[in-house]
Batch of 2 targets.
Target 1
Amino acid sequence: MDLLALRYFQTVARHEHISRAADELHVAQPSVSRMIARLEAELGVSLFDRQGRQVRLNRYGTAFLRRVDRALSELDDARREIEDTAGLSLGTVSVAAETLLTLTGLLANFRTEHPGVGVRLFQSSAEAMVRQLRSREVDFCVASQPLAGPALRSVELVREEVLLAVPRDHPMASRERVSVGELAGEPFITTRPGHWQRALLDKLFTDAGLKPLITCEGDEPGATQDLISAGLGVGLIPAMSRQAATHAPVAWLHLDAPDCYRTLTLVWREDGYLSTAARQFRELATTRLLLVHRNASTR
């Protein structure tokens, strides 16, 4: 069975779209289609249900993908281990996070301490992170909500309070605390479903028997404070952002609600090979972010 065909199949299965897979593989779309067709002919079954260039894994494809992910992951681990042992490369670390702003300070320190190590970054939802870990597209995920899956291991980096940010001229701006019930009807700026801010917002309002009024939702949590500062609404922002804020002034309030926290975790596969570079990143992440959190909590 052709190894290249398995790579093509894995990429198409991840995107469930021929053209997007071809773009990632840097090949022409007909080449991908032909490779998948030959693989299906060799196996004697169709792996996808087709609707034009959009494809969906069927039950055969889903079962086959589990084995392909495992086989290719073992081969990739073998290559990384050999390169690591032989000193052929200083290595590369691949990291996914819901917002890349979480990683800026950590990455600056990592590049200073390990200037020869390459770094690849992905901005991903929690659902995408699980897929990336399963296929070993990434070494680590920095997640703000639990990631479930076989062979996943995590370590808690930060547990911090989540605050309510409001514009400086908001009627509540001079207060220290507010209840969820008092926020009924307030326009919220938040992220799309799948991000931790949205999950927390929905939970807080559901627990209070309410539904939030959402006037703006997007995929970049880092933009929330700027939009709040511009007077477009209110929103949930982790306390760490308050300490780091140097722009977009807002007023900060505590929420009278249980479990109004964000827990930031570092997640990886415990059944895969971690290169020296990856282990160095993990060591720095577990010390750097904890140190930042301790310093912020004492201010």
Target 2
Amino acid sequence: MPRTRVLAHARVRAAVVAAATAALLAPLAACSSSGSSGAQDTKPDGKPGAADRPVTVTVTPTGEQVPAGTPVRVTAAGGRLTSVTVADAEGHKLAGKVADDGQSWVSDRKAVPGAAYTVTTATRTEGGTAKSTKAAFTTAPADKVNKVDWRPGANSTVGIAQPISLVFDNPVKNRAEVEKQLRITTSNNTEGSWGWITDWSGRDRVDWRPKTYWKPGTKVTLNGELNGTDSGAGGWFVRDYTTTFTIGAQQIVKVDLDSHQLTLVRDGETVRRIPVSGGTPGGDKRSWRGTAVLMAKEGTINMNSETVGLGDAYDKMVNSSMRLTWSGMYAHAAPWNARYFGNSNHSSGCIGMSDANASWFYGQVRPGDPFEITGKDTKGEVAPGNGFGAWNLSWSEWQEKSALR
């Protein structure tokens, strides 16, 4: 009997303890179900846990009148970046991509001079809370601006020897940085290279030429994403440059100064042979040899020998003028030299032909067509910067002129 009473009392005490425990737990369970963060995210003092702390976002650069020419960088601590937008006052955006871990974002392009940027970020905490933040900075204006003159023009059709050529107003010291921003795309993955040369004007210039002549029908696009690039002592670029063009028929003009004949070859077939007269042998009036590229069809123009250092030898209007070099070599009509066509060279350096032949020939050729000129008594090969003379260098020699080699 005493043993039985002890067990009964034990059962009563256990039931009381269980009931009390249930009464204490009931309110806690109710609190846990009413909050989104859960009890595990609340400290004993009632303050938010780590999962609910706000994400710390850092943007660089920051401040007013900061130097341009660097990418915009955004980092997050205590959470993840879900999106970043960087835009200037005109709505132009700097593209970029959030890293896979959500901790950083870097713009693809550099901040440009004289701009006011707003950086808008979207973040999410470890507990899932989303938030948007904004930051702003401005860049200092360019103290000096570098500009570009480029060829060929947009939407043009050019010959198989046409290079892409950019001439800079001011010297370019940071050539590698500039070259990295110049992108060429072609419809058939044409192999080619940039090369830095000195233009006939004395200015810095960079040309892109294929390894061999272009394939007819090739579509070519230049994207010069130079805005925000520092050229060095020559100043900042403050705009981008782009051009798209197409390669026309395969035409090669062969000029034999020894036989005094010009031959137009199209798609491997001879179209016409024309008797010509080249530059007078034995002095400054000799023609250039090598590959020259038709730069422009200028029509009827005034030619003055004093502008090319030949004294007062001539000053006249000339028809069907086709420029081959900056130094003044043309192919053109030269009726005053009719008795020399096909038998001797007697010009001031140009390739002359009859009015009728010049008019016909002018209608056949286009800028970018190569003139392959041979002859024993010449001034030498056309230099790379004297028009488009890059074809007179071997492929390896041209590649060496890239700033990225």
